[in-house]
Structure formats: C-alpha cells, structure tokens
Amino acid sequence: MAATQEKGTISIHTENIFPIIKKFLYSDHEIFLRELVSNAVDATQKLKKLASLGEFTGELGDLKVEVSFDKEKKTITVSDKGIGMTGEEIKKYINQIAFSGATEFVEKFKDKTDAKDIIGKFGLGFYSAFMVSDKVEIVSRSFKVGADEAARWECDGSTEFELTPAEKAERGTDVILHINADSEEFLDEWKLKGILEKYCKFLPVEIKFGTQDKSEEDGVDEEGKPKYKTVKTDRIINNPAPLWAKSPSELKDEDYLNFYKELYPFSEEPLFWIHLNVDYPFNLTGVLYFPKVKNDFEMQKNKIQLYSRQVFITDEVKDVVPDFLMMLHGVLDSPDIPLNVSRSYLQSDANVKKISAHITKKVADKLQEIFKKDRADFEKKWDDINVFVKYGIISDEKFYDKAKDFVLLKNTEGKYATLEEYKEKVSATQTDKDGNLVYIYSSDPGKQDSFIQAAKNKAYDVLVLDGVLDSHFINTLEQKLEKTQLKRVDSETADKLVDKDTKTESVLSTDEQEQVKGIFEKAINNKSFSVAVESLSPDELPVLITLSEFMRRMKDMAKLGGGGYGFMGQMPDNYAVAINGNHSIVQKILKADAEEQKIKLAKQAFDLALLSQNMLTGADLTSFIKRSVELVS
C-alpha cells in the first residue's frame, strides 16, 4: 500500500504539558518567589513607562511591591500597585501558557521606548507558583479608566479555573498562594527573607517584607542630651538603584568601596575595580573587583553574581567569565546572556563568547592603565594580583599579548622589572655559550639561600618564582621568549647554571677522583643519588645535591594536576650529587687514616648538603647531630 501524504499541526494537550511546567521546569522550588516578585516589578515598571509616555495620567503613588505571609492561613501573598488586569486580560495572559505579557508590552511600545527594565520573557514564571501551592488566587484591578470592577481568578493546579468579580479598592494585583503540605517550610519569615535577599536584592522597585524596628531621635532630656524612641518602619529588602546601574562618571571611590561591603560584608577592601558599561554589540553592565589573593591559590569561585535586568540568576559564571578571572568578585548584568526557560542557568552561544572576550580585554586594559599611570602603585599591588595575571598569561593567548608589557618579574632583592627590562638587565652576564639567555630563579629563597649566594658570587641575578602557578608560568615564558631558559638556582652547581664553556682545573688526579667517588658512594649507600666528582670553585660547597630542572618541573606540574604530567608524580626522585673535588674537605677525607673515618667525614659532608635542601629528617637528622658533636669534641 502506498504511503499517504499529509500535512497538519502537532497537537499539544494542556492536561499533559501543565504538570511538566509545574514540576520539572523549575528544579529549585524557591524560584517561585523570584518569579512572582519579578512579575510584580514588571507590572510596576510598565505603569511607570506608560506614565512617562502620557498613556497613564493618574497618580502613581506608593509603588512598593509587598510580600507577606500568614502562617495560620498557610498563604503567601505578593502584591503590587502596577497596571493590574481586567478579567479579559487575566484570561489572555494567565490562561494562555507561554504567552508573555512582557514581550507583548515591549513589542507594542518598541517605537516609543526600549522598555529595557521589563524582566519577563517566556510567559511561564507565574506557573512556578503551583510547585508550592494547592491553590493560587489572583485578585486584580486594572489601571484603565472605567475599569472599576476587579477580577478574581482561582485555580487548584488542574487545567480548570474560575473567574469571578472581586472587591479591590486600588489598582494592581495580589497573587495569593495557598501553600501545600510539602512546602510549609516557606511559611517562615527568615526563609522568605533569605530568598528575597538572594534573588531580589537589586530589583528596580522597592520590595517591602514586613517591618523592622528603627531608632529615632525624640527630643532631649533634662541634661540636653538627645533621647531616642523605637518606631516600626517598612523593611525594604532591596537596593533598587545598585551601583552598576549608574554611570561611572557619577561615582566616587567611596561608592565602589561601600558597594563592595554591601556585597561582601566580611571581606578585606579590594585592590581596585573595573566598571563595565557596554551597549554595543551587546548590553553588559557590572563591576568587577580585584580582591587580595593569597599565594596558595585559594580559588574562591562563585564570588561573581550574574543578574539579568537586576534579577539574580546564578553565581556560577564560568561560561561568561574566563577561568583565570573566576577569583574576581562583583556583579555582571546582561539581558543578552541566553538563559534557559526557567532563567536558572546559562545557555552557551556566540554572545556569551563575545562577552567573555570583552571582559578579558577590559581587565587587561585596566591593568595596563594602572601600570602606565602609577608604576610604583602597580608594583605595590603586584604580589596580590600576580596570580590573576600569570593565570591569564598561561591560559589566554589574547591576554598574554597585552599582559607581556606589564607582567613583572621580582628578584631576591625585591626589585621589579618587565620582561623587556629584565632581558636587558641580565643579557650581559647570563647568556650561555649557545646564545641562550638563562633566567635563574628561586622557589624558596629561605631554603635555597646557599645556592642563591653562590649564584650572586658569579654576578648572577636570581628571580623569586615561589607561587603555586609558577611552574606553569615558567613553561609559558620559555615558549614565548626567544632563546630563553629558566633554571632553578639549585638545579645545577653555580658553575653550570649558565654554561659558558669554561672549565676549572681539578686539583685531584684521576685515581683520586675515583677514590673520592667510591668513598661517597659507600657513605650515601642510596641508588637514588648519582655521585660525580667535579672541578668546581673552592668557594662552592663541598657537596651539592640537585634535581634536574626538567624532572623537578614536571613533578611540580604533576602536583598541580597539569594535563599529561600525572605519571611524573609517581616516578622516584633521582638526585645528582656533585662532589667538589677542589674543596679542602675533600683533601681532608683523602688524608684521613682509617676507612671508617673517611666514610664518616663523607657522610657528614653529604648530610650538610641534604640539610641545605631541607631533605634531612627523622633518624638521619638525629645521627647527623650526634656525629657533629663527635667531630667537634
């Protein structure tokens, strides 16, 4: 039988889709309050718009949105004094699932106003009320002249509703939720207050939630001192005009610092901040703060809050903010960031990538501006901000292109230099036989002091690279800087750090070198240490223990979880032991009469080298101390 051809429309049954909207659209039940308050704010903002266009000529009056609850009646009510609705409008906007009154409003007045303050988009937020309610009532009275009769809409969560006339003296809408047994946790003052402060803290209309006590002056006493009384005032839980919504030209440093305290009341003051204010090719406002970051790289993520038209969305902004800036604090607000239907999380698209790239550029520009404007101040902040900069250099090519001009290198004397400045500083003394520039660094100046002093004796400069990211940063520098190597100060003897193809003559014969090597191998008795006798300066230590720069760096990166280096962390350490054949102690070992004394002296010299690397612990340290006492007695 031949297949028939047919065209038609897919049938959607309300009785099937409604339970899905109620139960699965919003994964977090507390979202219902955000959605209903946002709707109330929209109704208020619409009235303001109409008044500004001359479409409403009445008194605006007090436009607060009020949230209240009655524990005995088990109800939560969200009330506004916005445009309200007629019975016909309730049928139009409420009974038609996914019909957005906000979208219709914006479309209707798009030629007269951008209506950017209108929050709604999908026409679904109202239905989140049924997640926590057995029944929902709407009592509304329209702002329109002649709309004297209010309307009441009731629904028990099924697809049936009842619409009847109602008594309501003022324009606006009351949404009354009759809370179900499973959701009675929301009938708690502090629970509701917490939700409102989380999601509605910066909505553009004042939101009242109960009252609070306030102290006011009440004349003076007999001694002329002021008296005070306690009065009840509206508890306004939000700041309708947050700092990021204002023009940077209106604001002072004090304003930014006060807003930071509002966001993070227990944090130290930030180092500086960036005010974002973009209207093309996307809308983005916000303020990002640079906090002081400890060098142990404590990733305090989820400190940036994402808003859409001043409605809190999430504090997981990894798709909007580059990973290296996730330690920043602050607020971002954009209506152009794509959200899922429940406005609970982001959906990635081209706009998100553009916004992320723009934030990266703005941060780089700000850092460059501070560096150029006040180099001394930038250097003071460097120890606190270098983690951001280095992470950016490691992870973002475009950021590196800008940051290479202001990233600083710090040496053991506490002096700073840019990459170009440092190259000029050390090129004369630290260029090896192959024309490679060698940067020498310390990862722990306190523990590596003897190696640092040996390097300085050769007129070498030693950098301090002791941060947890520095093993990755070092690799990046070697990739970016032409013919440049970085070596840790204790990875080689000082003579070998910068190989200039010069040799120091040995005072030992070949036989004596072999003899010394054998003595030390017996004294050490550990296959993890490879012994070699070398001709070093008499000023060098008698024994030096080094781990090759390559092996040590790979192990450091493995500890950090660097991709592809995990196996290195499982490999045993293999150290090179350089015996300074030109040191007087070696001569003393050779001249010792008994073999036992030779080995004891060699063991002592080796333990001193271990001690200088902080590698002498436990029983070996105890033996070293006892042996030291014997040798000086």
TrEMBL record:
Keywords: ATP-binding, Chaperone, Cytoplasm, Nucleotide-binding, Stress response
Keyword check for Chaperone: yes
Organism superkingdom: Bacteria
Chain sites annotated for binding ATP: E35, N39, D80, M85, S100, G101, T173, R343
Molecular function via GO: ATP binding; ATP hydrolysis activity; ATP-dependent protein folding chaperone; unfolded protein binding
Family to which the UniProt record says this protein belongs: Belongs to the heat shock protein 90 family.
Name of this chain's protein: Chaperone protein HtpG
GN (gene name): htpG
